[in-house]
Amino acid sequence: MDIQEGKQKFIESWGKMATEWGINRTMAQVHALLLVAPEPITADEVMEQLCISRGNSNMNIRALMDWGLVHKQLRTGSRKEFFYAEKDMWVVFRQIIVQRKKKELEPMLRVLDDVSGVEAHCPESESFCRMVKELRSLSRKADQTLDLLAKADSTWFSNIFFQMIR
């Protein structure tokens, strides 16, 4: 397999994997392309290499920048913007945790907080309140754990992980 085939396979696989997590496939493919690019590239190059529209290229690059996964670079003498992906995988992992927590877990915690005010006056409401209480407790623990992961460095995580698998 040559480098182009390898890059293409990686980009396609990264996109497929992302859809399993509920992330836009094209956004993941843009991210994958920028991850494997040895130098920063322009939005036009992203557009050409992935065969996507200019708007799709720009929109996904901006979204990746919002996630903290892609950065912009300006070059003296060029009016074009160049983009590159964060290559430190621990930073990527942490940024994804922060974004997924913000978009998924925190809204659910707000809903659970709201519905925890239901009063238990009958078997149905008692069952509902019990389920909400358990789910809220588990969600809070998950939230705290994700906060720890987001603040930790890779050495701390590696040590904990290797202790768990021994």
Structure commentary:
It is a single chain. The model has no long low-confidence stretch (mean pLDDT 90). The chain contains seven helices and three strands, in the order ααβααββααα. α3 packs across α4. By secondary structure, the protein is mainly α. The radius of gyration is 21 Å and the shape is elongated. The two termini are 36 Å apart. Helices cover 72% and strands 7% of the residues. The chain has a three-stranded antiparallel sheet with strand order 1-3-2. It folds into two domains: 3-85, Winged helix-like DNA-binding domain superfamily/Winged helix DNA-binding domain (Arc Repressor Mutant, subunit A), CATH 1.10.10.10; 89-165. The chain has helices spanning 3-20, 25-36, 43-50, 54-66, 89-115, 123-151, 154-165, and strands spanning 41-42, 70-74, 81-85. A hairpin with a 6-residue loop joins β2 (70-74) and β3 (81-85).
What's the short version?
Helices cover 72% and strands 7% of the residues. By secondary structure, it is mainly α. The chain has a 3-stranded antiparallel β-sheet with strand order 1-3-2.
List keywords for this structure.
single chain, 166 residues, mainly alpha, Arc Repressor Mutant, subunit A, 2 domains, three-stranded antiparallel β-sheet, 3 strands, 72% helix, 7% strand, elongated
CATH superfamily of the largest domain: Winged helix-like DNA-binding domain superfamily/Winged helix DNA-binding domain
Tell me, rounded to a whole number, the average pLDDT.
Answer: 90
CATH architecture of the largest domain: Orthogonal Bundle
CATH class of the largest domain: Mainly Alpha
Spatial arrangement of strands, main beta sheet: 1-3-2
- Distance between the ends: 36 Å
**SS-based structural class?**
mainly alpha
Order of helical and strand elements: HHEHHEEHHH
- The third-level CATH topology of the largest domain is Arc Repressor Mutant, subunit A
Q: Which consecutive residue ranges, at least 5 long each, have pLDDT under 50?
A: none
Number of domains: 2
Summarize the biggest pleated sheet: 3 strands, antiparallel
**C-alpha geometry:** elongated
Strand segment tally: 3
Q: State the share of residues found in helices, binned by percent.
A: over 70%
